[in-house]
Amino acid sequence: MTSDEQVKASHRNTPTSDEFRAFIASGWASPDAAPVPRAEVADHAARRRAALSRRFPGERLIIPAGGLKVRSNDTDYTFRPHTAFAWLTGLGFDTEPDSVLVLDPKPDGHEAILFFRPLAPRDSEEFFADSRFGEFWVGPRPTMRELEQRLGLGTRHIDSLPDVLAKDAGATVVRVVRGADGELARLVDETRAQAETPASVTQQHEADEELARHLSGMRLCKDEWEVGEMRKAIAATHRGFEAIIAGLPEAVGKERGERWVEGLFGLYARHDGNGIGYETICASGDHANTIHWTKNTGPVREGDLILVDAGVEVDSLYTADITRTLPVTGRFTDVQRKIYEAVLEAQEAGLAAVRPGNKFSDIHAAANVVIARRLHEWGLLPQGVTLEQTLDREQGGWHRRWMVHGTSHHLGMDVHDCQMLLRQDYMDGELKPGMILTVEPGLYFKADDLLAPEAFRGIGVRIEDNVLVTEDGHENLSAAMPRTADDVEAWIARVRSGAAV
Ligand SMILES: [Mn+2]
Q1: Which pLDDT tens digit goes with each residue over 468-498?
Q2: What 3-state class would DSSP assign to 219?
């Protein structure tokens, strides 16, 4: 109901006769009526909804998937549902745009109803004439029966949603995930304004924010099914990186070798998964010193390090987020290795801090000590600044000139997962089994950094792995991807020799 409006060209309007409409509606085989098996994720999604229901008894909760966004005129961007919607329904990449999950309050909990646009019959105008939603144009959608059987949810036509929203307007507390669908949020605001003594708009929006925050927090610890999806995403990402390694010699000498590398990863992401979980960073040479270099317009030169930060998102929308910094020739130079090993040592320190009972921010603190110590040893900090002084969180921080980013973030369906949480629950939150996060320190010496030794200039290194917090420590989920300088060199040699992995 709330996809962007498209601009349709008037010169494409073709009149259709009754005869034509009858003709195109006829002569098709009957649709398949076989029962649809219940998806494995359905039970997990039901458990998540039950937990949400217990937290907000008696309230109507509205979790939209969001709609299509126009790219230009009558073409849209690829659709991706809002994560809260996907997590609570079990739907992934094949979510229908404009779908909405409603948890409708009942005396003993909530009834979950999925509102969506089901497959239109063949005798509808939509079937052949609607280039945005019609089966002839974009393929079939599921029927209400199909989704009901697959997900174990009640389903209704999206057109009946406004009636449900208007039902006992004012008498029931309603919360909506605002970030997903602005139009629907406005509609909810209108119905809330009809209450006899409506809460202030600020109070209502705070209530909405509380729902979004709670949903972020619920996703902090992953269940076993989610960990399995993450393993798939990481395995596919591993294959994508090997395709890059195999393709690096061809990328050298191309005008925009970084784009070539991006394309190789994208091929694997699209084939083995749903696509990339975020824009791929392919940063050769000095470009590695731009933390989020996604223009990827540069060449890949012999002798460069190429920093690739990339992740495959699988069909369930879980994504990996891995960085490897690879010597294009297959061998690190001495100075490249020196910087690489400092970053690796910082990563090891960060990884060692990943265990239950530690705080999330302890990971960054541990990695930071190594980064600061190396920069101090190399004489890069201002004259007279001690290690203790630079590590002082209030007054210090000189070392941050060479690593301006944090070391970790939560990872899951969103690459920056659980983003709505407050500082006390994220940075200061305790690590718990089931959490998945990145550990990704770096060191960045820009080509024009006059405070860096000349030999360091133009070298940027980041190493990033995806880690599961376990009962007694952690498991590095991406441990199969080589990480030490020696192992990276051996990896490149092995892939290039054509040896099977
Ligand atoms: Mn990351």
Answers
A1: 999 999 999 999 999 999 999 999 999 999 8
A2: coil
Query: Within the chain, what is the greatest distance between any pair of CA atoms?
Result: 89
CA distance 3 to 376: 54
Residues 53, 150 within the same domain? yes
Q: Answer yes or no: are the C-beta atoms of 104 and 172 closer than 8 Å.
A: no
- Token digits of residue 264: 């190789």
Residues 214 and 228 in one domain: no
Q: Do 229 and 214 share a structural domain?
A: no
Token duo for residue 41: 């994720």
- Name the nearest CA neighbour of 479 among 286, 347, 290: 347
Distance CA(241)–CA(324), nearest Å, equals 8
Tell me if 352 sits within 8 A of 366, measured CB to CB: yes
Is residue 380 helix, strand or coil? coil
Does residue 151 sit in the same domain as residue 196?
yes
Domain membership flag for residue 4: no
pLDDT, one tens digit per residue, over 176-200 is 999 899 999 999 998 888 877 778 8
CA of residue 322 to ligand 1 center, whole Å: 7
Tens-digit pLDDT profile for residues 349-406:
999 999 999 999 999 999 999 999 999 999 999 999 999 999 998 999 999 999 999 9
Going from the Cα of 321 to the center of ligand 1, the distance in angstroms, rounded, reads 5
Residues 177 and 264 in one domain: no
Burial of 18 (0-12, 13-18, 19+ CB in 10 A): exposed
Tell me the CA–centroid distance for residue 350 and ligand 1, in Å. 14
Tell how far the Cα of 383 is from the centroid of ligand 1, in angstroms: 33
Question: Do 248 and 174 sit in the same domain of this protein?
Answer: no
Cα–ligand 1 centroid distance for 464 (angstroms): 7
**Which amino acid is it at 456?**
F
The reply to whether 116 falls in a domain is yes
